[in-house]
Each structure stands twice: as structure tokens, then as C-alpha cells.
């Protein structure tokens, strides 16, 4: 029976190999400190945290997430360790809540390896605290117990570490925050909350094996102000969308035989338009793949640990250590492990088969904003009349089934800029030639920029390019040839300075107009369209002033429609030292080749990202950019006639 603890209460631990499961409404940092009999932490090497996640007997997550699992083996703890304190902290400088009082109360549970709860604790009465010592596992007379603590610290992680006797707590807290910030820079956006009452039968519900994610209630669309009462004309306009079309019911699934799984249907998620339903369905598929894979990995880990426990019992008893009985016990333990893994694989394959069937139905139904470059939908491309709610930036997949690709959709307008990494991270099998990798990075930037141009109405999106040495002229040729750039690519120090000065001034003017509520006073020649600045081969051609302007655009630009896309190798900018760290952290890192560097904030899987490259030999990019260029030219001509006629 689970013990529901209150602050200060303790409970015996019946086993020594445990999991500590943490659930919070927002991404948090989880760690642990190891203390002596007095609870004193004697050095940074006694702290498990995202930058150093493994210590003897404990492993903690490597990044901030809304849900965590900490692995604990108390038998492996050194004899001088008597206390293991679980720490929670809000990540600093990456957005989100700055105090626990502004979010749901964190929930912590101590479980066995099979998921059976031993004790749980909901940390309540937190307000201004940004760090909290959640609970501690402590050794008393040779036995281990768990105690609920719930001690919060308004001074954050540094104050909590200092309170445990760690003199270098401030420096360690800075290292932890830096590691978390790097993790945030490579994280996929959290899936949207699933509306209550969504009738979809998801695969993970059938697979089982993991705890469901905490419920995230979603407020249904409110009736717009001024809507007539019943009997009058109803305005079906979604509050956040520019559409006047009434919501249509999702397509009905075809009838299925009793006992057979439901046939997937494109657009069967909730939403006020087909695009919105498809967007929610894609994120549902992402969530399902994450959940069912987590269940499989957890089951395999449990099977391995159970086999190790049974083998340990055989070896610890001199009477069964050797001989036929020992051989039989070992064979039986391995057979059980194999059987458990096979059962987990059967469940995984069943869930993956259903997801693959759904992907085969959904992919052909995606609009061009969500579609791959090789989708037939691009053959009928026309410049849209309104901005879609999201854009596809590539694909995501997990090693358990590499052929199951989930579209990586991001909301528009972009909330943060992009960094197309032109260097080798050591985690992907890309081209060995650095020049080829740089060319691929420039091609990836052009492919993404083209997709953004394609989904905006004519005149509502402008692209600027900085290529100081002109080294990517071949990659940028499609943009130049189609006439879709605001001006030719800027070259040299003078060109870099001119483009950055113009965009910085635009950000300043729009911010001042918004703050003073005087947007009608903006200069008539100011381009109010969304702007994208592509910076190639950084830091070549950039002085200190230009670097400062880049940081300013990365921080302040997205809120007023100016977005940054860096094409750079991080190693090339090491000479600037830590001055560029905030810039890199504020951008979403993407790679020009498949790389498993993206992580989700839900279960912490390392997802392999595949960029949205144009298929070799395809003319789709030229075709789409040609349509965009002709629409822009027609708009400029119409505006010129209007100005001349006026």
C-alpha cells in the first residue's frame, strides 16, 4: 500500500533498488546530493546534476523536463553516504515560471523498478521559492527510509546548495544552469495539451507500461465578444485564427470488424479547421511514440534488473553458487528476462504498427505547410491568402523504428530563432569534409527559408541574407534567381553593418510604437512584414558592434516580427568567449544531416532530427520560389500603380 507522506513524515523502504518519479506542470531541473551522517555535502563531486548525472548508486536526468525518473541503487552507495536528498529547481534564464507558487504543486513518488509505489509526496505551500529539497533517503541503523522534506529556497539552487554545506554552491549552480540552458536550446517544443473529451483511441493507452502524463486542461474556445444570442447569426471565427469558416466535424472512421483496431483517419483530432486537427493529430502521434517507447525501454530495464537480482541471490549463497542448481537458476533467470523482453517487444510492435498505419494515412493529407518537399501537394502550390498555424521544420524519429517519421511542426510566427549547425558535433555520421558540411548547412537554411516564404501571403514575409565572403553564392542562388530577397545578399563589413542597422532600427521603432500604443505613427515606408535574417559563415566579417546587434535581434526581434537564422560552426566563434553564449542558448539548434541531438521535455528521449532537404534532382524548390517571386512582383506592381494613381 502506498504511503502518502506529509512534510516531515518518514516511511521505511522495503527494497534498495528504486525509482524516484517526479511530475510537475512545467519543466524543472532534478538532481540529488549525497551527504554524510549530518547531511553535509563535502564537494561538487557529491552532487548529481544535469552536467554530471551519474554518481555511485544514483543517476539523474540530463535536462529540464516536466516529468523525471531518477534511478537509485542504495546498495551501491558508498559507506560514508548516509543521506540522499532529491533537489528540484526551476531552470534560470530560459523562460517559464520563476517561482514554484506560479505552477502546479510538484509530485514526487518513490517506486520499485516495476513501478509499484512505495511512498509519495505532493509538495504544497510553495510561493516565492525557485528551488526545493523535495525528500531524502536516509540510512538509520543499517536500514534505509524516506522522509518528506519540502524545504523551499527563494534564493534558488545556489542557496539550497550552500544550506547543505557546499561552499562552492554558487559556482555549481551556475554550471547546472548552463547545462540546462544548453539542453533547452536543443529541445523540441512540448506537445499541445490534449483537449478533454478527445475521443481518439491512442496507441499508448492500449500498450500500457508507463504512467500517463499529468493532465493539462485546455480552455475551450470562447465565444467571441459581440456574438448574437441564440437564434441570431453566429460568428464562428476562432479567437486566434483568421478564418470565418464554421467548424466541421472530424471525418468519420470507416466501420471495423469487432475485435479489430480502429482504422486511422486523417484529421480525427479536435480542432476548428482541418489544418488545426491535423496539427493536433501529428503532435498526438509524437506523444504516442514517446510514450510507447518509454514503456518498452522501462520494461527492458526492469527485465534486466530483475535478472541481475536473481543472479545476485544465486551467487550470494555458497550452497547455490556452483553446481547443477546454480546452472538451472541462471538459466531460469535468463529465460524470464528473455520472456519479459519479448512481451515488451510484442506490445511495442503492436503500437508501432498502429502508428505506422496512422502515419500512412496522415502524411498524404497534410497541407503544404506541414508536408515534405516530395509531397504531391506542392505540385498544385499557390501563394496562400493567410498564414497557417504551423510549419514543418523536418522529421523526428527514434531508433526503435527509424522508418516511422513524425513531422516536426513549430508554431508560427517563430518564438525563437534557428541555428543551423555547420560544424561536427561528434554524434552524427555526416560528411567528413568540413566544406561539404558547410554547404549542406547553407542548403538546409535555404530550404527552411523557402518553406517560410511559401506559407506567408505575398508581401507579408521578407528575407535578408548576410554572406560576408560570398562563400554560399551557390546555395543562395535559388532565392536570388526567384527575386524573393528583400535585397541582394550583403557582403563585406559594410554590407553586414547596413543590414544589421536597418533591422535593429525596425525593432526599435516597432517596440516603441507598441509600448506607446501609437502603431499608426510608424513611418509609411517601414516594412511591417515579418522579417527573416539569414547570417552565413559567422563570425567572418563581424565586429563587436555587429555581434551585439545580433544578440539584440535574437532576444528582442521575435516579439516584433524579426527572426534570426544563423548558419555557423560554434567552434569558429570560440574566440568571442562567453559573450556569445546567450545568443546560442536563445536559438533552436538544427543540423544539416540526421543527428540525435533533439530532446523532448516530456520523457527526455533523444530524438533524431532529419532536416527538410529538397530531394536530389527535384525542381520543386524553383517552382515554389517562382510562384512566390511572381506574387511579390505582382504585389509591387499593384502598389506602384496605386501610388501613381494617388
Give your account of this protein's structure.
The protein is of the alpha+beta class. Helices cover 33% and strands 21% of the residues. The chain contains eleven helices and 21 strands. It has helices at residues 156-163, 169-185, 203-207, 274-316, 324-365, 434-455, 473-482, 492-515, 544-556, 581-586, 620-645; strands spanning 3-5, 10-12, 17-35, 47-48, 54-55, 58-59, 65-73, 83-89, 107-112, 117-122, 131-140, 143-153, 390-397, 406-411, 418-421, 461-466, 530-538, 562-568, 588-590, 595-599, 606-610. The strands form three sheets. Strands 1, 2, 3, 4, 5, 6, 7, 8, 9, 10, 11 and 12 form a twelve-stranded mixed beta sheet that branches. It has a five-stranded parallel beta sheet with strand order 16-17-18-15-19, sandwiched between helices. Strands 14-13-21-20 form a four-stranded antiparallel beta sheet. A hairpin with a 6-residue loop joins strand 20 (595-599) and strand 21 (606-610). Helix 1 (156-163) crosses helix 2. Mean pLDDT is 83; it is low at 197-247.
